[in-house]
Sequence to fold (634 residues):
Amino acid sequence: MSEGSFDWQAFLGRWQDEWVPSDDEADEEADEDPGEGPRRLGVPGASEAAIAAAEARLGRRLPPSYRGFLAASNGWQVDQSAGIYRLGGAEDVDWFGDPFDMTPMYEENLGENPRREDVLMAGMWTRALRLETDSDMSHALLDPGDTDEDGEWALYVYQGWGGEYPERYASFHAYMEDMYRGFHGDRAAQPGFVNATTRAQDAHVEEARRLALRGRYEEAVPLLEDAGSFGRPHSHVLLQQIRQFLAPNGRQDYGMLVGDPRYLSEFLPVQALDPGRGTWRPGGDDHWLGMIAARGVPRETAEALVGAVRDGTHRYAPEGAWGRAVARARDEARWGATDAAWRTLRAGLPEWETTGPSLIAPVGLLADPYLGPLITPERGAELLATPRSGERGPAPAPVPDLDPPGLVWITEPDGYQPSFSGYRCVWVEDASPDRLPALLGGEGAALGGPVNLRMTPHHRRDRRGLDDAEPWEDRATVSVGRTAEGWAFAFDGESHLVGDRLDSPAAAASATGRAVVVWNDPRREDPDSDRSAFHLSVAEQGRELYAFTVRDTGTERSGAIPEALDPTRLFRPEDTPLANERRFLTALHTELNLSLPRFALARGALHTFPTRSWTRAPRKGESYAYIGFRRHRG
Fold:
């Protein structure tokens, strides 16, 4: 920035004209002589001779923006920002000289490979120019050793009472711009604080809101960021919603708006996600409930919502055409058809309607147990780029479907989760998924609430029917859904080694039609191990048609196995267990038309239930061993 490229007279004059006391200063101002008029922030500018004399005394030419400032106002009251109350004039500034011996401490923390900015900060203390003349143990320091191509010196603000690293600004001009924005932000909530700057920024917020609803959120972001730095109403919450969909797993706080009836159904459920998932820490549920109650939400409402989020019964249920699309998408997602569910949401999104100026996106969608997991950052960006609430604009390019065909994907990481190192699954043809507990479950088994077993800690899972199992039993908590080809499935992605006492559930599952059971323990997590086990059994109308089990010790087989599934063709001794597994999974898809939905099993939420044991009881003369763990608190 050249010395004359910024109009300091206009900038400082606008600041002076807009100045009013903050709420904290109001009482102090009332005690002063009302005849004095508004507080004067600046003083007449220094002459070129006075600035040159200061430079001669210091032995350095001052940076351009600071020179321009002194020429416009030879000092300034910074409104107590960051503990600095007043900047001195040309005759006041002097070298800091590191009176507190900060340099050794910062140099000790540099380490072996310090960053350039850390080296500059460590050396700043002895060479910096001190600007403030009145402060609360704070210093404004211009560093001639940290300069840019325009000759500007970086400015550091150090709060001696804060214990934090100094805050760096690229130049004196950047520092004063930030102080001006802070001055506005401190007064934004005051009813009488209206001026040309606030009106211009409020117009930017409204423009950004309309742009966002037209799908042009990327153009809205800089407008909202700029208005947010002035503390303008709505700017922060609008920007939060954009960030929420670009990083769906991030945390956003919607403040007092959670209690506004216009927004409660969108914002409050999202706020309840952390306590509902058990990730809220400070003070536990009581503290969170009290905080929400202070924002105008009845405690019983917030308590019921946390409980619904926790047990998976909360539902995002807007009205109108958008609400009907949400209901259809939920029914698709709850059985694993997440790509179809997203397409349904995408088609219905233009019908979504805002309920007030602080809402630009269906944030409540993220709290739905079935639909929230569907929103990846890519889909979040597509949602934001879709015109909605009566606004028009071009539709964005659709995000490609995320579920690959077939089963080979089980062996491959998906970028969010590692591959399944062991799994077992039952497919039942022409059956509804909600019939599976009756076919495979223990006594009284029923579908539980939505859960992703890969993302849920063991101690927080539904243990019904598992904790009272016999030591020899191998029950499973399975995720339930429907494949693209119409098979109902029950999948366990954390299976144990296929044992000698395997009792396939295929016959029991086939009471109403064909059933297929696969149990696979490839031990891929141990690259040095050749151990692996594969089991396949197919049954129909309660009778097993064929089956085989392949172990490192040999193959057991029964029934008329189709040639395409012959284990001698699929499992070749010269190939790796991984190659054999992929050949096996490809054959299952090709021959039996089997698949599984990757997204739902890896990142989505599905119903679960506990199965009966997959292993039989030991017969007379057979023995078995098991290991148990007990936690002791001492």
